[in-house]
Specification:
Bound molecules: glutamine
CATH topology: Beta-lactamase
Oligomer: single chain
CATH superfamily: DD-peptidase/beta-lactamase superfamily
Strand content: 5-15%
Order of helices and strands: HEEEHHHHEHHHEHHHHEEEH
Number of helices: 13
Length: about 300
């Protein structure tokens, strides 16, 4: 894969992509089931690409903050996996769900054990693992994300947090249902506050691209040199990103893009190529699966134009 790296003009690739996705920017629909997210202007677009050698490239609104939403599930999973190691998989599965991210239907058949850590039910179990095993869980999680992104100013958007909490009935239903199966140890409200808290963080494409670099570098962050995961754990998270990171569109995403990636309903998508780079695209207009419509296209164009993917 690195054969062609030195020949790639990353800046012109992402500038071309930003041009080519323009007609799509009005096609997606901004998430409004969290009313505060519905206020965002849908036609914005940005990309940041961070290579593990320290080079960085950006285009469009790469420094505009947006709601990270489910992208943050990767950070909480990293924390939970490093605490519980392989015992984590007793609580949550590793299979694609084939169902929407907030679906309730599989949980009863599967006795309260969510299919994977990236659907909401799975991320709520992960939240419980972190809350149950750490003190000051949310401030610690925010510090962890600040450290990964190298940006100490990252914080929650309180209006988004309140909006998620107020309208989070599905997530509350999932959490209580799993509690009835014994798969939530801590108090449900405490777990949900942690989950809504990390989802409501505001970050920009550069913050997220930099924060994901450790997954592109076998668990060690190439800029701060800290080891967050073993190479095997980093491999496992990347595998889950490929198979489950974009929910019931993960097959289509792998087919079109060929990179492990994680989307959020704020319109961001983080994606990596192990050994080479981490990137984030953002455009708030979503497709019917809850993934950024122009963002998925931008990543598809990225792997097509560069000829680089994980395959
Ligand atoms: N906080 C959002 C929710 O719980 C996250 C969903 C997402 O980004 N897909 O519904």
């Amino acid at each position: 894969m690195s054969r062609f790296n030195s020949e790639i003009n990353w800046q012109s690739v992402i500038d071309e992509i930003a041009e080519e996705v323009q007609p799509l920017l009005s096609e997606g629909k901004v998430a409004d089931y969290i009313p505060e997210l519905g206020k965002v202007e849908g036609s914005q677009f940005g990309i940041a690409v961070h290579l593990i050698n320290g080079d960085k490239f950006e285009t469009g609104s790469a420094n505009e903050k947006f709601s990270v939403q489910s992208i943050s599930k990767v950070f909480s999973l990293t924390k939970a996996f490093s605490i519980l190691k392989d015992d984590l998989w007793k609580r949550v599965g590793k299979e694609p769900s084939g169902n929407p991210f907030n679906s309730l239907v599989q949980l009863e058949h599967e006795n309260g054990k969510p299919r994977n850590p990236f659907i909401n039910a799975g991320a709520v179990v992960i939240a419980d693992c972190v809350v149950t095993n750490t003190d000051n869980s949310l401030p610690e999680m925010i510090n962890f994300i600040r450290e990964l992104s190298g940006n100490k100013t990252i914080k929650m958007n309180d209006a988004v947090f309140q909006s998620e909490k107020q309208f989070g009935h599905r997530n509350a239903a999932l959490a209580h249902f799993m509690k009835s199966y014994g798969n939530i140890d801590s108090d449900v409200d405490e777990v949900l506050d942690f989950y809504f808290g990390h989802c409501s963080l505001s970050m920009n494409c550069n913050d997220i691209a930099r924060a994901f670099l450790f997954l592109a570098n076998h668990g060690v962050h190439p800029i701060n040199n800290r080891k967050y995961l073993t190479p095997s754990q980093a491999k496992r998270i990347n595998s889950l990103l490929l198979t489950c990171g974009t929910y019931d569109a993960a097959g289509d995403f792998a087919f079109r893009v060929g990179m492990p990636g994680k989307s959020g309903v704020g319109g961001g998508i983080a994606a990596i190529i192990p050994g080479l780079l981490s990137m984030c695209v953002w455009s708030p207009g979503l497709d019917k699966y809850g993934n950024s419509l122009a963002g998925v296209k931008a990543l598809e164009l990225f792997t097509t134009k560069t000829g680089i993917s994980i395959f």
